[in-house]
Amino acid sequence: MKIRRVGAAGLLIECADADRVEDWRAELWRRRETGELRAVEIVPGARTVLLDGVAPGTAELLPEWEPGHGEIRAEGPLVQIPTIFDGDDLESVAGLWDVTADEAVRRLVETPLSVAFSGFAPGFAYLRGLPDAWAVPRLAAPRPRVPAGAVALAGGYAGIYPTASPGGWRLVGRTDQNLFDVRREQPALLTPGTRVHLVAA
Amino acid sequence: MITVLRAGPLTTVQDLGRPGWAHLGVPRSGALDEQALRLANRFVGNPDDTAGLETTLLGCTLRFAEATVVAVTGAVARVDVDGRPVERPHGHQLFEVPAGGVLDVGQAARGVRSYIAVAGGIAVEPVLGSRSTDTLSGLGPERLTDGTVLPIGVPGGAPPLVGEPSRIAGELVLGIRLGPRDDWFDTSGLFASSYDISPLSNRIGARLAGPALTRAHAGELPSEGVVLGSVQVPADGQPIIFLADHPTTGGYPVVGVVGNVTPLAQARPGTTVRFRELD
Questions:
Q1: How far is CA B272 from CA A148, B43, B210, B242, in A?
Q2: A2-72 has which CATH code?
Q3: Which of the two ends of chain B, N or C, has the fewest CB atoms closer than 10 A to its terminal CB?
């Protein structure tokens, strides 16, 4: 673990891998709940956890808070996403994987996913769990409009577009789940640490 | 109630934003010149976090249904009520608009953004605890258009306070703390160079144009969280300083973080920017 300074009141914890990011994120959220940690934002990334708006002296506390491996991780809530696998890029993904479209869908529904971090748009979750060998490149030219609910792949991640937007991810399917609703107490359906299963609808 | 007669190029409702949701990809948003909004609110007796209006360069024109106490801060701009210029006892405008009166905030002579606070605040529905329009994600109220009607809240009646007007500089020297990714760059160039504010700047970021910052090592950065004031350097080497509507994560390295972004809210395109190291 390495801690980097981010401005006057921010810290960036560098982690060895995405598992450790989730360990740290869960640990720091827990410590904020108990009042040991003061932080306005706790933001996981692909290999980092960002703290912003922390009290002076927080950097010195972090080494003592180093979490165990996977202790909290297994407890994340499970969300099932009913998905219709008819995306425009399903065939191209299957081609990149050198399998049939049916086999590609089988892989997607049988792989346990979890939210690594959010970004790009409110409620857009980067879902990890697909093996590195299944990583697919983004489209050479992004689509000007991807509809809300589109289930897509890029790099080693899966993601679901919460709102219609331009996008360069490869579309494999769609869901009618509402990914982000500001009227809900928890506006995002998929929050960091949430476990996700895509289910054929 | 306020009816918008002339919305101007970009007039939005802004308060102090919605920090605390970055882990869901929700930008902080909020007034770009936070000090100017706080000051305007204090003038009219509002709490600091009350929603007001933020205009861009050309101001806006509003009709008030009821007599309303109003303050205008931020950019240096002519302010008229019913066609007559407003007195400026403290270098800012605090005045009452009569029932049916028309307020015109004119083109900024200096600075960019004017802040209009009304006693009681702009009472649109809050979204995730804030009434701010987020131009990146689209959360919050729509930007104002001609004909938009805005409700006004109940004035709290706190006594008006006077504060220091914000200074608008012709050249900016921004204090920056290096990191988290300063080791990706030859940072001597950052302090040796001067940059111009690019006309492509907006509420998401102030884009700088100048000598490209040299990378010390190549490679791609996995996406990581970024904060207000982050100086992100994309592949072309031209820095972007993240402002209120910045994305919550980014894939380009951040060389340093500007300590106070408020002066950038009033920096016009072409303004010269230099950096000095903090700490």
A1: 42, 32, 10, 17
A2: 3.30.1360.40
A3: C
